[in-house]
Design goal:
The chain is mainly alpha-helical. The protein contains 37 helices and 8 strands. It has an 8-stranded parallel beta barrel, surrounded by 6 helices. Helix 24 links the parallel strand 7 and strand 8. The protein is globular, with a radius of gyration of 28 Å. InterPro entries: PEP_COase, PEP_COase_bac/pln-type, PEP_COase_Lys_AS, PEPCASE_His_AS, Pyrv/PenolPyrv_kinase-like_dom.
């Protein structure tokens, strides 16, 4: 990476930081800014190894008057958010979305050349891209800590940086942009960064739609235009008009797993909001096209459609506009609970696509290809990707909720107790009812409120066009009957709409049996008739890692995918794997390109679904340039995995992984499940108890309010450890596994061989290296010093930190490096730049947690808000927190 690129990033960090300093000085006085600078200086020198400065930082923070605690936390939080803006801007400008390894930035043009050199014909390249189905599923997991109103200001700040950089020849533009920048930073400083209420599921869906409106609406046609140009150069033809290699789905308003706030009514409202927003966006496109397509030359088909008029394109577009306005009015009336009494509306993708295609073909037929391939082509591409609903809405529910419906139903009908039946009995009953023509559910059946809610969700499915909905996902699926139950409920209540049904395998045991379950399922003729030749399976990363530890979970996920690929090949079924990844390494996170290419060969065969959640949606898709690059990375990785798949692992590598996973799993369980001090230590040393008050997402932080770690959702589990910089879920157990192997003959050599030759293992080690660099055991030790009194808990904390340090040493040994991130300088620089601003927030958070506990949670509103701001600031500084 050149010196100039570093300078660009540093310059923008300085511009934003200076402006923030002036804003704070105007509000609180220069003396307060001097306090901030003193704190930062202590933190910076402490980071350089000055232990006296570290102690002075803590002492300085502890002596701050109470009135200063909130503004100090806000100042550091704001700077970290501004640093993120500068880095995002840099990445967009220099097309650096993933800084994984030098030279690893995937470029689609280079991949097409490599694929041709490997023997793939130009036609094969076009066919692969045209048939590719990559669905990015936007989810509302509660790790986006920044309010939407601030995100909008931050986007405007990014635009100011662009204006300043491009104003060299027009200094007056630079002056205007600088003035606007100062105004926006002042607006951000004077805006409360913490929500006062949790967002509702509808709020979360609106946030997702805003990403489409503000970024993806522009990025999608740009992405396809770039693809077209590449294919014209490489293969001499365009991407087919209806091709959509990258599509979008959503869980926002559909994911009811453990979230009682997502109801059938909410799902219906979110679907209507999507229709309204889509109509509103298409109206803008159609108005532009009506203005631009003033041509009179048209083919006979278009003339037959509109009659002999002077401006045939405008005539057709005017009719389409009227229908689209009616569609928007209909959606608004439905949302408001009013009767709609207007004209005909657009209900399906084809009703919008067909008239636009008629215009396109007519222009091409009369020699106006240049016009056809302009704004009209962009709109056709949008329709191919977004349809008339913006996203496909997935639905997710726990297997136990469906089983509860069947238990109540069989009991009410005098058929026995479904819960008492074994798997064979359940399958026999469900398959018979799937074949039966008579209804199973009585029309006026009185069931529990919980079961009524499940049935109402299937009624929503029945009322929708299938193209508005994605997949029905069953969490905690363990048996074929879990899938058959959903198929039966869909038949009984869902009418003519049949959605793909994806079992989600997430615990270690369920992952180990995933292949067997799907094999049994596909062998059932009654199910196969429903599924036809496609099967989707979701792999859970979050709960499996929480259940088994990261290393054992990663290997279980890999083996489950291999098994599923083999099973589906045996049955002649096309498999789509749905990866339930989070933003952190502990939840399967990491650079998308590396992650996809580290999957088993054959598991990415032109199709892939993957969750994009929380703050990662903003980091990857929040701005058009970044979104464009993110889509290119996904397309590039899936195409490479399809045409140039990685080799299968060597048999002795498998044996190595089996042993490593066994040792890591035992070590992880020995602490998390079997050490009686672990849960008390976790509760004492992390802000887990306070996290529930941080109004992040609509979903509760726990599945149940009683119990231990097993009841905690995977996201707050990760979030809490990240706040104290121990990052425990992503590494615990790995140190024992690697250390033991290195002590054995040939251990180091075989691990290095696996690292260099096996993408799965190499990617795992690289992600572990990044995580170790972000962790900081000294900070974790300070939390313990401030918050933990019990000697046995302190002893556990000391052991955990010693385990971490042994792991760091052994990873450096395997990588043959002196220090972490030697080969990824941008990530190293980003961490180093942020640490002096994150460190004070850690010190303040530990202090505020102790005061909160001393006061039994009754600290002042300002101190409570300051505690929340420390969490938001640390999350912003570390970026991938959930």
């Amino acid at each position: 990476m050149s010196h100039d690129l570093h300078e660009s990033l540093r310059d923008n960090v300085r511009i934003l930081g200076d402006s923030l300093g002036r804003t704070i000085a105007d509000d609180l006085g220069q003396s307060f800014v001097d306090k901030i600078e003193t704190i930062r200086a202590h933190a910076k020198r402490g980071r350089q190894g000055d232990s006296l400065q570290q102690r002075e930082l803590i002492e300085y923070l502890r002596q701050l008057p109470e009135r200063d605690l909130l503004p100090v936390t806000r100042a550091f939080n704001q700077f970290l958010n501004l640093a993120n803006i500068a880095e995002q801007h840099y990445r967009a400008r220099f097309r650096r979305v993933e800084d994984y390894k030098p030279g690893s930035q995937p470029v689609l043009g280079e991949l097409l050349s490599r694929a041709q050199q490997a023997g793939n014909s130009p036609r094969k390249l076009v066919e692969t891209l045209a048939s590719m189905r990559v669905e990015l599923v936007l989810t509302a997991h509660p790790t986006e800590v920044i309010r939407r109103t601030l995100i909008q200001k931050y986007d405007a700040i990014d635009e100011c940086l662009t204006a300043i950089e491009s104003s060299e020849d027009y200094p007056e533009r630079g002056t205007r942009a600088q003035g606007r920048l100062e105004e926006l930073i002042s607006q951000a400083w004077h805006t409360d960064e913490i929500r006062h209420e949790r967002p509702t599921p509808v709020d979360e869906a609106k946030w997702g739609f805003a990403v489409i409106e503000n970024s993806l609406w522009q990025a999608v046609p740009d992405f396809h235009r770039d693809l077209d140009n590449l294919l014209l150069d490489t293969a001499g033809e365009r991407l087919p008009l209806d091709a959509a290699p990258i599509r979008y789905a959503s869980w926002m308003g559909g994911d009811r797993d453990g979230n009682p706030n997502v109801t059938a009514r909410v799902t219906r409202e979110v679907l209507l909001l999507g229709r309204w927003m889509a109509a509103d966006l298409y109206l803008r496109d159609l108005e532009q096209l009506k203005t631009e397509l003033s041509m009179w030359k048209a083919n006979s088909a278009l003339k037959a459609e509109v009659g002999e008029v002077a401006e045939p394109y405008r005539e057709l577009l005017k009719r389409l506009l009227n229908k689209m306005e009616a569609t928007r009015d209909w959606a608004k009336a439905e949302l408001d609970g009013r009767n709609y009494d207007g004209g005909p509306i657009i209900e399906t993708r084809d009703q919008l696509y067909a008239p636009l295609l008629a215009c396109y073909r007519s222009l091409c037929d009369v020699g106006l290809d240049t016009i056809a391939n302009g704004a009209l082509l962009d709109t056709l591409r949008r329709v191919a990707v977004f349809g008339v609903t913006l996203t496909k809405l997935d639905l997710r529910q726990e297997a136990s909720r469906h089983a509860q419906v069947m238990e109540e139903l069989t009991s009410a009908l005098g058929l026995g107790h479904y819960q008492d039946w074994n798997e064979a009995q359940r399958q026999e009953f469900l398959l018979a009812e799937l074949e039966s023509r008579r209804p199973l559910i009585p029309r006026r059946w009185e069931c529990s409120a919980e079961s009524r809610e499940v049935l109402d969700t299937f009624k929503v499915i029945a009322q929708e066009h299938a193209e508005a909905l994605g997949t029905y996902i069953i969490s905690m699926a363990a048996e074929p009957s879990d899938v058959l139950t959903v198929a039966l409920l869909m038949k009984e209540v869902g009418g003519q709409v049949t959605l793909p049904i994806a079992p989600l395998f997430e615990t270690l045991n369920d992952l180990d049996h995933a292949g067997d379950v799907v094999d049994q399922l596909l062998a059932l003729p009654g199910y196969r008739a429903l599924a036809k030749d496609r099967q989707e399976v979701m792999i859970g990363y979050s709960d499996s890692a929480k259940d088994a530890g990261q290393l054992a979970a990663a290997w279980a996920q890999y083996r489950a995918q291999e098994s599923l690929v083999n099973v589906c090949e045996k049955h002649g079924v096309d498999l789509t794997l749905f990866h339930g990844r989070g933003g952190t390494v502990g939840r399967g996170g990491g650079p998308a390109h590396a992650a996809i290419l580290s999957q088993p060969p054959g598991s990415v065969n032109g199709s892939l679904r993957v969750t994009e959640q929380g703050e990662m949606i903003r980091f990857k898709f929040g701005q058009p340039d970044i979104a464009l690059r993110s889509m290119e990375i996904y397309a590039c990785a899936v195409m490479e995995a399809t045409l140039l798949p990685p080799p299968a692992p060597e048999p002795h590598w498998r044996e190595e992984m089996d042993q490593l996973a066994k040792v890591a799993h035992a070590a992880y369980v020995g602490v998390v499940r079997e050490d009686p001090d672990f849960v008390p230590y976790f509760r004492a040393v992390t802000p887990e108890g306070a996290l529930g008050r941080l109004p992040l997402g609509s979903r509760p932080t726990k599945r149940r309010q009683d119990g231990g770690v097993e009841t905690l959702r995977a996201i707050p589990w990760i979030f809490a450890w990240t706040q104290i910089r121990l990052m425990l879920p992503a590494w615990l157990g790995s140190g024992e596994a690697f250390s033991r192997r290195i002590e054995q003959p040939g251990g180091r050599e075989v691990l290095q061989e696996m690292r260099s030759q096996w993408p799965f293992f190499g990617t795992y080690l690289d992600m572990l290296e990044m995580l170790l660099a972000k962790a900081d055991v000294a900070i974790a030790a300070y939390y313990e010093h401030r918050l933990v009194d019990e000697p046995s808990l302190k002893a556990l904390g000391k052991k955990l930190r010693e385990r971490f340090e042994r792991l760091e040493n052994v990873v450096l040994d395997i990588l043959q490096q002196e220090k972490l991130l030697e080969n990824t300088p941008l990530i190293r620089q980003a961490i180093d730049v942020r640490n002096p601003y994150i460190d004070p927030l850690h010190g303040l958070q530990a202090e505020l947690l102790q005061r909160n506990r001393d006061a039994d949670g009754a600290i002042s509103a300002d101190l409570s808000r300051a505690l929340m701001v420390t969490m938001a600031g640390i999350a912003a500084g570390l970026r991938n927190t959930g």
